[in-house]
Amino acid sequence: MKASDSIMNSYAMQVSEKRGSRALVAGFWIFTALFCLEMIFTAYYELLVLPQAAQAFTRLGFPAASFRVELSWAKVAGVAALLRPMVPARGVIYVIKEWAYAGFAINLISALIAHLSIGDRPQALAPSAITSVLWALSYFFWRRLQPRSS
Question: Disulfide: which of 15, 60, 137, 148 matches 31 by Cβ 3.0-4.6 Å?
């Protein structure tokens, strides 16, 4: 067994002992997978369904060209960060995941504000609101899986 395997196994045992159950891990992966699927879908839509995505961004008051592309690639990078396997807390991956969660929070709050600021109908808020709930649950479970600092 390699040293890295030993470290990961001991970390997994530490997490399961300290944090309890497989239910936390299952909850984390279920909500994270659903959240990441939604983010990848929106990134795909914004990158490859060009006319409709550009119109949607323009209607919300954002520049249709560059901002849409930057936001989409940031979503792809954030999803890649969130799907990285869990490793011991406070490492580089931990910090990257924290920033990915923060970036997604800013994105989702901005989407809700954009829809509200143009007076969109309440149904237009539903996708961002549902995705925000998935984000919150994914983040909640991820934080619960992290060992506490002594």
Answer: 137
